[in-house]
Amino acid sequence: MALIYKICPRDLWREAEAAGRFEGAPIDRQDGFIHFSTAAQAAETAARHFAGQADLLLVAVDAEALGDALRYEPSRGGDLFPHLYGPLLLDAVKSVDALPRDAEGRHVFPAGLLPA
Fold it and tell me: Which helix (H) or strand (E) holds 8?
């Protein structure tokens, strides 16, 4: 199973859990798709787009469960990023973990997620 990741403010994710689906953060709705990262891209995404933000969650999603609505498209530096064109149904979610910050303010990812 290939996993992709969404970094999400806790309050926004709790709303998604109550609704049974995630429609995206404001930037996702603005861009017309839900932004995801691969494991290799997640730390840079956190540093670039979530620097200094606390109370974030890391949502791991089964990419295969998203079917044809998931597309890998060029973005930052030409890398292919996963984009979901449609809502994220919660049955595709495999885990939701806190994304704390260290003493320097960098986000700390779960052990084993990021490539060495």
Answer: strand 3-9
C-beta separation of 82 from 36 below 8 A? yes
Quick one: pLDDT at residue 82?
97
Matching CATH number, 3-98, of 1.20.1250.20, 3.20.20.370, 3.20.170.20, 3.40.50.2000: 3.20.170.20
pLDDT band for 116, please (50, 70, 90 cuts): very low
Backbone CA torsion sign across 42, 46, 49, 50: positive
pTM summary value: 0.93
Distance CA 99, CA 59 (A): 10
Q: Where are the domains of the chain?
A: 3-98
Element (H, E) at 49: helix 39-49
- Which range, 30-34, 52-56, 78-82, has the best average confidence (pLDDT)? 30-34
CB 62 within 8 Å of CB 36: no
